[in-house]
Amino acid sequence: MTAKKETPMMRQYREVREGLPPGCLLLFRLGDFYEMFGEDAVRGASVLGITLTKRHDTQMAGIPFHAADNYIQKVLDAGLKVAIVDQTEVPKPGKLVERALTRILTPGTVLEEDQLDPRSGSWLAALNWDKKGLHAAWVDLSAGIFEIASEERPEDLVSCLDALSPTEIVVPAAIFQQDLPEEVEWLLKRSIVTQLDREETESRDPAGELCQTLGVLSLEGFGIDAEHPAVPSAATLIRYSSEMLRRTPGNLNRLSWRRLDETVRVDSATLRNLEIFEVTKGGRSGSLIDCFDQCVTAAGSRLLERWFANPVRDVPELHRRQSLISIFHDRTIQASDLRAALRQTRDLSRILSRLQNRIRNPREIGGIRDTLRQLPEILSGLQILEDEKATDLANRIGEFAELKEILEKTMAEELPGKLNDGGVIRDGYDEVLDRVRSLARNARTWVAEREQEEREKTGIKNLRIKYNGSFGYFIEVTKANVHLVPDEYVRKQTMTNAERYYTEDLKEKEKEILNAEDKAIAREEEIFQGVVDRVLTDADGLRRTAEALAETDLLIAWADLSRMRGYVRPEIDDSLEIDIENGRHPVIEESLRSSPEGIAGADSFVPNSCALSSESHQIAVLTGPNMAGKSTYIRQVALIAFLAHTGCWVPADRCRIGWIDRIFSRVGASDELARGHSTFMVEMNETANILNNSSERSLIILDEIGRGTSTYDGLSIAWAVIENLHGQGPRGPRTLFATHYHELTRLEDSLPRLRNFSVSVKEWNDQIVFMRQVIPGAADRSYGIQVARLAGIPVPVIDRAKEILEALEGGSTATNAPQQSNVPTKKKKPVKESDQLSLF
Ligand SMILES: Nc1ncnc2c1ncn2[C@@H]1O[C@H](COP(=O)(O)OP(=O)(O)OP(=O)(O)O)[C@@H](O)[C@H]1O
Fold first, then answer.
1. Which alpha helices (DSSP H) does 461-584 contain, by range?
2. Residue 814 — left, alpha, or beta (φ > 0 → left; ψ -120 to 50 → alpha)?
3. Which of these, 653, 649, 652, lies nearest to 636 by C-alpha position?
4. For the segment 253-311, what is each residue's pLDDT rounded down to a tens digit?
5. Which residues are annotated as a binding site for ATP?
6. Probe target for ligand 1 pocket from 603, 627, 633, 774, with the most ligand atoms within 8 Å of CB
7. ipTM of this predicted complex?
8. Ligand 1, from 632, 702, 704: best to mutate by most atoms within 8 Å of Cβ?
9. What span, in angstroms and rounded, lies between the C-alpha atoms of 309 and 287?
10. Atom 18 in ligand 1: which residue has the minimum CA distance?
11. Residues forming the annotated binding site?
12. What are the start and end residues of every segment in region (Disordered) (predicted)?
């Protein structure tokens, strides 16, 4: 049997297919469709839910070219890459059209508007792990941000990456042959991972490669040594992105080194526990970031995400952000005018990134023009404030008067999404273009007039001259009037109800029109490219402007919500204290505002104060009934501390915080269970991390540690943990410890820097009323049974529980209750002094 001869087009296809990286779906442009063949077609059809067909034994599936974006998004969501082969010349009859691989789209390298979340960064990260620690580089190609970091303790860097939530991570395949730290494995499990071969990740001169892309002679200008252990990861990212974009990224000119000791470290567990970016059950709604995002521009929201992912210890920088909020807070009218102007701006930084990577779209150039139109108003809006920091912000915004004039002169007011649609360049700007356009217009008028003439000549009242892509211009006559058609009409196509004809002079005109239109589009393209090149000469200034606009938007949004919600400017200093007067939990406060009936009947948030000092009142042990508000209180303190380090104002009447190096939390464990650890193991791992890594500058919140094991073991561990955090020295980390172990309140007698607090409740007719107030002193009872009743436990069970409790507390056995010695009571010591407490 002879092998079937390969067609030239299939050769074209095969040549590209063979060179593609694994996991790619190849979309091959065939006229108005992107086609997939063979295995790609089978896979694509199942991912996209489209029909699989077969032609000459080859399986095929296609998607319309014009609707490709939606389909591409689905493929990327399924974790696959998409290779695009486009036609690179205008098809000519009888000749194989030239095609080329123009892009490989991967989740971390997409730049197209439709495939990016406007309010979230799109991070592509590269990791490497060796004896010196974990090394990483990450880039947002859609915004031109490029950073590296390296840490001896992998968990520190993992939490920094966790906050960024990379859409794709590239790693050398060999990394999996080593024993990876558990945190790294966990991070990789949650992302789309691309494994690269050795030759793709190793380079003789990674620093040199980086310099070339960034357009610099050395990395020293960025404060980065060529031997920095994360430099190879950064070079890997450049190589990988270049392969996917089919060119070196054109919008990277800076590399920053994220020094984690300049930031407030918030480990991954704490990010999740405090629901900073996502709520525990998944999704952004109800998270802290959601509560603080009231930006009017997408770039403002992305900046908020970056500031939340990178809380800083840099007190002057925090003061700068706070002062600007303060000005916008006080000058409401000016701030609202600025906001109105910002609302009219477009996403400059993403548009620029696309242009710099040769993804051009006339509407986006219109977006730049629309933004430039707003700049004078924004500039004067900032200058009018007559404030040094607002002026600094204004100084980062350019005017671009000349560029604006060029865009006004050249670009039409209403712009099409595609260059080929025509109508991009204004009438009157270019003589050549005007001439060809008027030829086309005249010819079209000729056609319209001709229709009228033909109707009169033939007496066919409903005769129409129409146009379609495959036949060009034709005359359409309904079947009933066919007998009136003159001889010179040439029949072209028969329809159910009509006949279609052409005439020689109509064909001549058609040629003239199409010719003129082609010429017009070619001329428009030439002018448009000139405009794009001109925009790019201002790229650096435009990018700086975009950053300043995003900052203005974010700070005005924060000022606005601070005013609406009654937030205050926190004082941040070098002290070792936290002093919050009437603090509130920002997310719960807002949710109570919108739904006035909480489960316990609360109708508004009850504020509570907090005073901690590493040197005097370092540890607060918080007791109180279930549902009283212990977790809420300790979380609210951590959230206020977190917010203060982003520059934001905080929900309190007054707040002073000595800067914090790390925020630790040990609360909740749900999603950690997925790692295959028991609740108790997770709890102990996290506690070990806290004990080993906290300093006198840290803030720790601990919620019921020790509850995952037997009461005595748990209590003993909790007791020893508090003693360790207190330590023997003069100071220790500021700590809030919420617990149901009332025995721990006795530590106040032996540890001078520990204070007891409780959340108050009142008893009324055997019911409890939650007061939500944190007061000095330990709680007297647990009220667990009353809370169980509130939760809907059946009455007989509640009654029986009461009997058992009474029996335990009174030592009676009349109710057939368990013996007191088997069940720890809340009021009694956990065990006999001699056999347990002597340990403490
Ligand atoms: N200060 C407050 N003002 C108003 N409502 C509050 C306040 N604090 C807590 N709440 C409400 O009470 C509910 C229970 O609070 P929280 O979970 O903090 O209690 P808890 O003492 O930690 O309970 P448990 O010991 O059972 O874990 C919260 O979901 C919230 O709706």
1. 504-537, 539-565
2. alpha
3. 652
4. 999 999 988 999 998 889 999 999 999 888 999 999 999 999 999 999 999 999 999 99
5. 624-631
6. 627
7. 0.98
8. 632
9. 14
10. 629
11. 624-631
12. 811-840
User: What pLDDT, in 10s, does the model give residues 641-650?
Assistant: 999 999 999 9
Contacts of residue 409, Cβ cutoff 8 Å, sequence gap at least 6: 426, 429
Shortest-distance atom of ligand 1 to CA 604: 4
CA of 698 to the centre of ligand 1 (A): 25
Which protein residue's CA is at the shortest distance from atom 4 of ligand 1? 605
Per-residue pLDDT tens digits for 485-542: 898 899 888 898 999 999 988 888 888 888 888 889 899 999 999 999 999 999 999 9
For ligand 1, the distance from its centroid to the CA atom of residue 684, given in whole angstroms, is 24
CATH 1.10.1420.10 placement within the chain:
293-337+353-400+538-565, 431-531
Q: How far is the CA of 665 from the centre of ligand 1 (A)?
A: 17
* Average predicted confidence (pLDDT) for the chain: 88
The alpha carbon of 651 and the centre of ligand 1 are apart by a number of angstroms equal to 17
Best mutation site among 631, 758, 789 for ligand 1 pocket (most ligand atoms within 8 Å of CB):
631
Among residues of the chain, what percentage have pLDDT more than 90?
60
Write down the CATH superfamily of domain 8-105: DNA repair protein MutS, domain I (3.40.1170.10)
From the alpha carbon of 599, which atom of ligand 1 is closest?
A: 31
Q: DSSP string spanning 82-115?
A: EEEEEE-S---TTSPPPEEEEEEE-TTT---GGG
Asked: is 293-337+353-400+538-565 a CATH 1.10.1420.10 domain? The reply is yes
Tokens of 596: 């006035």
Indicate which residue's Cα is closest to atom 25 of ligand 1. Answer: 626
Q: Which residue has the higher pLDDT, 655 or 155?
A: 655
- Structural class in CATH, domain 431-531: mainly alpha
Which residue type occupies 14? R
Where in the sequence of the chain do the CATH 3.40.50.300 domains occur? Answer: 571-793
Give residue 708's pLDDT: 66
Sheet holding 192-196, edge to edge: 192-196, 168-172, 124-130, 133-140, 145-151, 256-257
Residues 103-123 have a mean pLDDT of 91
Amino acid making up residue 553: D
Q: Which residues have CB under 6 Å of ligand 1?
A: 588, 598, 600, 602, 605-606, 624, 626-632, 772
Distance from residue 617's CA to the centre of ligand 1 (Å) = 24
In contact, 665 and 280? CB cutoff 8 Å: no
C-alpha angle 604-605-609 in degrees, rounded to nearest 5: 150
Contact 391, 382 (CB under 8 A): yes
Distance 652 CA to ligand 1 centre (A): 18
